[in-house]
Design the sequence.
């Protein structure tokens, strides 16, 4: 098995770069001091990092899975502003013992996630390290709408989500227990599939505030409530639980709770948004509550939730 | 001593974020899913990663030194396109044992390097990890000039550099030998000081090809030669050796060679560019050679050099 320690940096880049997708906005691609892009409108930019053993495990995720996830969670951040993603910059740190195939797989996963959206990997950097770290900066641009922040929800708005929740956590629970009972959930954990474009759709329908659900509905809705200085009241009976989460919970027995996974699980990357009235909510989205004057906090079924999603700084279980 | 493992992520961000500089181009700063920037012209984007024990050592560099260097090498990449830097995205991975002061120092170093140029840190991400990894993506925009790549040097062009070379390597040599004989060189290793704006100046003077000197003149000029498919001939007697490199070499004795450091040392981040004629070269730059039809290679004093700078994928000595 050839490892990246067996190759020099230029040789590795020569294998890696041609697998990366090109951006529709690209004027100059990778290989120079910087890439050059055409931007039409406001530039929207976000960054996320994935660290081995914290955000992914190599026993569970292939290089392509990690590339897919690194791209998708960043595309979702751009989408959550109501913007259109155009390009990624990717830095990869990896031990010399990392198989070349793992690294080339990462490029393939980036391509598979980005290419359907015209998004390119326009540059980056490679370095040795003692563990794998993938850092992605995503760029996008607004197309005729103002960027949608988390801060502009208004009292009386309805709260909605763009997809069913809990599948990623259900997949994680299976892998953690070494009991694979529902392959769809496992795949949605390894390769989250938010509908990129849902955020733009929300913006075009007049969303007042929006974010993507990366750390779980409870934690993220609490953030939106605080940013907008409103009380968000969610009715758990309205929260759409992904069928794969329900199937997984049923198959694993009484302990696990599909609704709890939908509320706190995270990593689904669907949109959470507020709209001025129910009739503005796009088809396919689900209303889960409403915004009120009051304390800047989240209520679930009338009470403040205690479970907060999770904290990526914990030294505890890698959750993905 | 408080470490970042003693704090939760939100509390750390609440201390870290206010120390970061704001961008002149900022419409929406950090804290949402993404930042929003105004862009006027082409967008220029580049990324670099710094890994503990490979690109810096905590015994040598404070958090502020690392923040400074992470910013400066990225600003130089944007400058090397003839563009004006506007904003950075920064992801930081660090062990739970990292002192909070080190992390806050990183923010201070980013600010000190960026603020004079109106460059902001507009977003990023934090994660635990087993070693410190700082990944920076820099954004900039062209102001009325075309981006200057490495590929458009022409036969007959003169080759010039925008500053004296070898000081960073001279600083490294002192730290590696635990013999501090010239503090200016040490400081230029810990905090490289390329003149940001030299690249734009080169572009306005009609530079045909340009890059910043990160891996040493020999290695980087070889890259420019290959990208432009020309022979670059450098006369080592013309290469400007930084006085601090000369002083360091003199003080350390016969072995070290200030000219060799200037040729292969790297990390100075001055500009290397080609111009159509000597009279086009901006004041303060130094002509070091010329471009010819011929093999796509670098010649130094008529011969192909064997020393190549260094390879960041080596498991060998961390060089900065």
Sequence:
């Amino acid at each position: 098995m050839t490892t990246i320690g067996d190759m020099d940096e230029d040789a590795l880049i020569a294998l890696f770069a041609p697998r990366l997708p090109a951006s529709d906005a690209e004027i100059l691609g990778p290989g120079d001091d910087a890439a050059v892009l055409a931007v039409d409108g406001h530039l929207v930019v976000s960054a996320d990092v994935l660290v081995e053993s914290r955000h992914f495990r190599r026993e569970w995720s292939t290089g392509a899975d990690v590339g897919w996830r690194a791209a998708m969670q960043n595309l979702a951040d751009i989408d959550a502003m109501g913007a259109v993603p155009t390009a990624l910059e990717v830095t990869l740190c990896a031990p010399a013992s990392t198989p070349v195939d793992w690294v080339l797989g990462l490029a393939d996963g980036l391509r598979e996630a980005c290419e359907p959206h015209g998004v390119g990997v326009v540059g980056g950097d490679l370095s040795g390290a003692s563990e794998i770290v993938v850092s992605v900066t995503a760029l996008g641009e607004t197309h005729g709408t103002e960027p949608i922040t988390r801060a502009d929800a208004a009292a009386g708005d309805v709260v909605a989500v763009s997809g069913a929740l809990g599948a990623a956590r259900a997949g994680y629970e299976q892998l953690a227990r070494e009991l694979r009972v529902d392959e769809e959930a496992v795949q949605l954990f390894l390769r989250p599939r938010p509908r990129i474009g849902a955020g733009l759709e929300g913006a075009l329908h007049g969303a007042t505030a929006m974010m993507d659900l990366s750390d779980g509905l409870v934690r993220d809705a609490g953030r939106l409530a605080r940013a907008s200085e409103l009380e968000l009241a969610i009715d758990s009976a309205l929260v759409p639980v992904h069928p794969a989460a329900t199937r997984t919970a049923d198959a694993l027995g009484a302990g696990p709770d599909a609704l709890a996974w939908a509320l706190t699980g995270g990593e689904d990357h669907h949109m959470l948004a507020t709209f001025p009235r129910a009739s503005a909510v796009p088809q396919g989205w689900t209303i889960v509550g409403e915004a009120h004057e009051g304390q800047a906090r989240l209520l679930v079924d009338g009470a403040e939730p205690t479970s907060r999603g999770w904290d990526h700084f914990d030294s505890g279980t890698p959750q993905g």
Summary: Chain B has nine helices and twelve strands. The two ends of chain B are 27 Å apart (CA to CA). The domain at 7-141 of chain B is CATH 3.30.1330.10 (60s Ribosomal Protein L30; Chain: A;). The mean pLDDT of chain B is 92.
